[in-house]
Amino acid sequence: MLFGRLNGEQHALLELVALPVCVVCARADEAGRRSLQGVLRDGVNDVGVRDDWRSRGGLCGRHWRVWRHLESPPLSSAILLEDLLGTYLDSDRLGAVRCPACDVSERAEARAITALRRLPNAPLERALADGPGLLCLRHLDALPEGHVRSRFRTRLEELLEHLREQVRTSDHRFAAERRGPHADAWLRALRVFGGDV
Fold this sequence. Notes:
The protein is 67% helix and 0% strand. It has 197 residues and is an all-alpha fold. It is elongated.
């Protein structure tokens, strides 16, 4: 989809509107995952990266789960985990974890919110007409009043109607009715409340 004169972050956000996800959460998750892939590919051999991870205590639980599911050679993981476990055993305490992937994700989240704030109305309208993208409540609340916030709020009002229709058509009296866009409303609503669920 072409949107004209927008920056790269705005283009990426508009492309994500084609998916039924919070576009800001998706950008933040993608950035965190890419940072972990970089460590797996080359960063594990960088003494500075390993020093940083040791001082931070490794990853948060969520990003360890992401790490586990990445395509990675076992040696990269073993090198890093040996380093972290050795540090823990030497100090006999873990301390507070300051996850480097969370830091990357938070910076990406801030960039995405800034890009959304500056997004012209016409490209957003075209993207929302074609896709089910949304914002979770946390990211909707981060936007100031204006056309972007208003348009995503309208999307949530549409979702509420889809939820009502899903509940109505679940009644056995209406079971023969054809399922429409409301069939996955509960999943989209979970993303509104939980972000990257």
